[in-house]
Amino acid sequence: MTTPTERAVIFGSGTRGRDAFEALGLGAAIVGFVDNDPLLQHSTVLDRPVFAPAALATLDFDVVYIASSQVELIREQLAQQNISPSRVRLAPHLADPTAPPPPPVVENPLSNYIDKGFKEIAGWLYMPAVEATLMLADIQRAHLAPGPVCEIGVWEGRYLSLLSFLSATPQRVVAIDPLIHGGNRDAQLARLKHNIATYARRPDLITLLERDSKEVSPAEIIAIAGGQVQFMSVDGDHTMEGALHDLQIAEAVVAPGGIVALDDIPNFSCPGVTEAVMRHSLSDANQLAPFFLVANKLFLAHKSHCEIYRQAVAERAEARQAGEWGQRMLEHRKRMKSLNVPVRFLGQELLVAA
Ligand SMILES: C[S@@+](CC[C@H](N)C(=O)[O-])C[C@H]1O[C@@H](n2cnc3c(N)ncnc32)[C@H](O)[C@@H]1O
Fold first, then answer.
1. Residues of the chain with CATH 3.40.50.720
2. Average pLDDT for residues 195-203, to the nearest whole number?
3. What is the position in ligand 1's atom list of the atom closest to the CA of 237?
4. Nearest to 259 by CA among 270, 248, 251
């Protein structure tokens, strides 16, 4: 039991941490919260500071209450910081036998998405595009700091869940979709939320704007994301006007070195998307240009970065790190070279894994 003189730290500053604060009530003097998430450190929760775990070495406290689903990992982490197990307790509300069991801890959430989520979540996304997206994010790490991501047109979250894994460290994710195409908005929203909760990396960092992208400004996206985005998926309105508008949003919100994935190129069920990327490229003010096409997705980057990414993708394919689509891409390049037909699109050489 806690005593009123006990000085306590709560490990976990999210919902469980707040619940622990309530549950401890006046039974303990709460020194503050501790959280492993750098995005939450140095903030305040319930008027108490949120510290990085390293600060435990300097804080004056009697006991740490774990208020997180990662109980065993945190116990190990505290042991490594030489905090005696006798000073570590499970938060009272989590120890309550009538409390609902915590969700199972998934050892490797990205593998969980690839092995299960990709198959379970309905949507339009093919495995080569998943592999290519992960490869591009890996290549990107050498060229820009981890940043947020954004998707226009999320449907039930198949690509969105993958996008949440792209940054080297967990970052904010902005999802924009008016949820108008499913016919039953409530059912679609429930499936989207379930899929995100089950398969995304950090569901708490995802903000859903249930709006038409024409009602969302680049400034609003940047404000919610906390900065320019490192990766943006454009897969919303498939008319020429809609896709052109969304490319202009992408142009404004993507950081230098950022990557845009434009879906449904080429797809002659919705030729307006192809027309949109062509019209977009006609303006000199626009900096985005295409460099790579795989499984219905056209990847674009700032003109200053297209060659860097193109070369890195080709090198990985040559090193057989790109799966079967990488070999198709190299064969296509070789064949077109032998025919003396340069493969160029909108002023750039294009890698094509058709
Ligand atoms: C092809 S689906 C997106 C698929 C999704 N990216 C996935 O991974 O499965 C197109 C989505 O765009 C949304 N959409 C249509 N018009 C939109 C608009 N103006 N702004 C934002 N989203 C829109 C639709 O509601 C639909 O959910």
1. 7-95
2. 95
3. 16
4. 251
